Amino acid sequence: MTLQQLKYIIKIVEFGSITEAAKQLFITQPSLSSAVKELEKELGIEIFSRSAKGIALTVDGAEFLSYARQVVEQAELLEQRYKDKEPSRQLCSISTQHYAFSVNAFVELVRECNTGEYEFTLRETRTYDIIQDVKNMRSEIGILYLNHFNEKVISKLLKENRLEFHPLFDAAPHVFVSSTNPLSAKGSVTLEDLRDYPCLSFEQGEFNSFYFSEEILSTVYHKKSIHVSDRGTLFNLLIGLNGYTLSTGVLSPDLNGVDIVSVPLVTDTDEKMRIGWIVNSKAVLSNAAESYIRHLKKLIEAYGFEIIQ
Asked: Cα dihedral sign for 155, 279, 215, 294?
């Protein structure tokens, strides 16, 4: 086993394709495939499963990747110490549902980066894709929520993919509305209050099940529904159409300004959202990923929520 082979595995996971990784490494695809197969043979494990749809990390592969990243990182630290090399480029990828606090923590992570180079990725994406990203180690961490309604389905999917859920905090249902919306002045609102306003939600693609919805109370019928794919568009439509969306209630004035406000939603149930982060059970988090989680917890506490221990 060589350091170069470890770097090959990391690059393949980064690009999700042997062909694309080979291009980035300036070697032929057959040469890269051969290097991977030699390493698998030497270790007696299968790192990647191969199918017509492409490649994916196996359970053994996910564990191996964690150790490979640590070894490469330590080797680079040795080179920095004894060869006067510049600090290596930091890498970290996060997949998340559309939460302002996820972005805020990412901003803090980038700000504290003390290397001259880094390559960080933040994917605000669909629920199912978050799970797949973390399963295949395309992202180290995923941010999503569980509640009484979706917990059985999502937890089963996490277990099948050998992913662990770590709770961060509980949030009662809120709605986001424009500051010019008449509802913004109310101390709380009910579903009846919302009846004539457009309801905005994040579309979930082919996995458009109620269980994968980012919005709590996903089975409630809405007279007017609009589905969007990104947070910026959703906020623009909240303002432009006087709509609303169901949410955690956590808003960031730094990112969202003062045009959107959060109002508690009163319902007949005590349903809450338990927001947390998921990780591959075989993964060992990088320093950057651990730092991201620390920033998440610090920000959540600053918003007035209690961290679940």
From this structure: positive
92, 285 contact by CB (below 8 A): no
- Do residues 279 and 161 touch, judged by C-beta distance below 8 A? no
State which H helix or E strand residue 141 sits in.
strand 141-146
What's residue 286's pLDDT? 82
Per-residue pLDDT tens for 57-85?
A: 888 888 888 788 878 877 876 776 666 66
CA–CA gap between residue 169 and residue 273 (Å, rounded): 8
For 281, the 3-state DSSP assignment is coil
Asked if 227 contacts 167 with a C-beta cutoff of 8 angstroms, the reply is: no
> Cα separation of 135 and 290, whole Å?
18
Rounded CA separation 92/237 (Å): 32
- Model pTM? 0.76
d(CA 238, CA 251): 14
Separation of alpha carbons 210 and 218, rounded Å: 6
Interatomic CA distance for residues 81 and 252, integer angstroms: 40
Domains of the chain: 1-83 (1.10.10.10), 170-273 (3.40.190.10)
Q: Which residues contact 180 (CB under 8 A, 6 or more apart)?
A: 239, 242
Work out the percent of the chain whose per-residue pLDDT is above 70. 94
Helices 100-112 and 287-302 meet at what angle, rounded to 10? 130
What is the longest distance spanned by two Cα atoms in the chain? 68
